[in-house]
Amino acid sequence: MAKKTNPVNFLTPAQAFNIAMRLYRQDIKLYLPLIWQSFIWLFVPLYGWAKISEIKSTISRYSFQKLIDEPETLAISNQFVKKRLFQIILLNTLVLIFMWLLAIWGFYYLHLISISIASAFLSLGGFIFARLITIILGLFLLRELNYWWMRVFLSQSSLAIESKINSAEKALKKSFILSKNCRQTLLPIISYTSLNLFPIYFLIYLTTFLIVGVWRLPFLANNFQADLSGVFYFILITTFFVLRTTLMPLEQIVKSVIYYQQKVCLEGYGLKLRHNPPHTRTGTVWETVQNAGRLIIQTPESVELQFTLALVETRIKALLLDILIQYFLSIFIFSFFGFLFQEISNFLKSTFAQEQIDLWLRAIYILLNFLLYMGYFAIFETLWQGQTPGKRMSNIRVICEDGRRISFSQAALRALLLPFDQLLGIGVFSMILTKRKKRLGDLIAGTLIISEETRKNSPNLAISQLAKNLAKKLPEIAHLSNLTPNDLNVIQEYLKRRNVMETEAKAQLSRQLAAQVKTIISLDKIPDKVSAEQFLEAVYLAYQQQ
């Protein structure tokens, strides 16, 4: 049986994270009281933890309603959640027990296997082999635990969001449906979110450890250090919990975005024709999804230029490619100069002391390194209109804020500040927080990184022979001109998504769309032996051939 492929690239991990960040920034003032309440409830066992579950579920519900263009207040979302709070707490308890039992069972058997292998091989080589096998099995166990965690990842969201799901059992079933192919869908977004939040955690903890480093300075008395050690640990623990509660709304919004994406891909959510209720593709959220990263710049000549901001991961990929190219260039250049330096050293031995010669050659070597590292970016970005070899391979480009090509001074300034951006992930941190995804060098040089537009071919949809035959007859028996381009877009989206949709959802949606299309084109009835899906294929093909 042929493996199904997913032709629908609805949201990339970067798009999902950017949408979540946008929603988080929009409502941060609303979330601040909830963040504060969550921090307080952390220290109240059981009841406080139940209140945190209520707050998390409220945020999930509130953010999802904004995603589907049916916003409601936090109070209304909270009322909805309170009616099923017992089921949410029961669900969280069941999931926690399940994951703990699974982990204990897995690591217990891993321990038994490790002991058995170690006892079978008593030599040093056997011991190393046993440890290697244990590590491999441990990684496999962590992979499986991660898989089962992702299968129940959306269960709390489904109970907080869906009005038809009112029990823990139904929520788990829904989560298993929506987490289909979770390693290809959920894992990239979760991993991308974690990587983007890592610099924040890192900088906070680095600051905390720098503080304790000051406390440990030799000029401070030992008694004073002992007195402050408890304060340090209190600050460290408090910092961790403050950070966790501050980012908690963002994590819940990411889950809502994932939930929205999975419903769209696997259930065809949002595919409704004009005669249905208003959740169609023309809504503001859909535009936000499709136009995430879009940028319109007005030039001094009052000409509007449209660009797409480059994704963070694409910029990292381009930088890694450039560093790799620089590495091979440095091997070639310094191999040549190494031979040249040796000849120069031999020639000057009779005139200067060896220490002086080595000092000058070392200075030249450092200067060449600097020129190679800085000059590579500055020269290429100037001569290639904002591109380096890595950027060209990644289809991204540097431009000025007003849309013009960058100058040499701007390219040089960006190159000089690149080491600071690489230090401690400051550049990534800056790109996350700024609306135009600027690193420090971009902020100071007044530049942007845009993605080069690539032309997308029209989708190659599979059309059955029966649908092709019907498409030839439809112009004579139906009024295809009644269909609008938006109607055709909905049909096309269904045909694109159908291979990854759940069987029941696909059958229900195809019947619904076919009935609506039949009414729109004034067709008496769908021909016998033609399924709803084949009818939609025929209508799509007939409209295209007009």
Descriptive notes:
The chain has 546 residues and is mainly alpha-helical. 71% of the residues lie in helices and 4% in strands. The protein has 21 helices and four strands. It has helices spanning 13-26, 28-41, 47-67, 74-82, 85-120, 124-151, 155-161, 168-178, 182-215, 222-267, 284-290, 312-348, 354-383, 389-394, 408-422, 426-433, 440-445, 465-477, 485-497, 503-520, 532-544, and strands spanning 294-298, 304-309, 396-400, 447-451. It has a four-stranded antiparallel beta sheet. Strand 1 and strand 2 (304-309) form a beta hairpin. Helix 2 packs antiparallel against helix 3 and helix 3 packs across helix 5. The chain starts with 12 loop residues before the first helix and ends with a helix. Mean pLDDT is 78; it is low at 1-9, 275-286 and 454-458.
**Roughly how much helix do the residues carry, as a percent range?**
over 70%
Which word captures the global form? globular
How many β-strands, per DSSP? 4
The helix-and-strand class reads mainly alpha
Main beta sheet? 4 strands, antiparallel
**N/C terminus separation:** 36 Å
Total of helices: 21
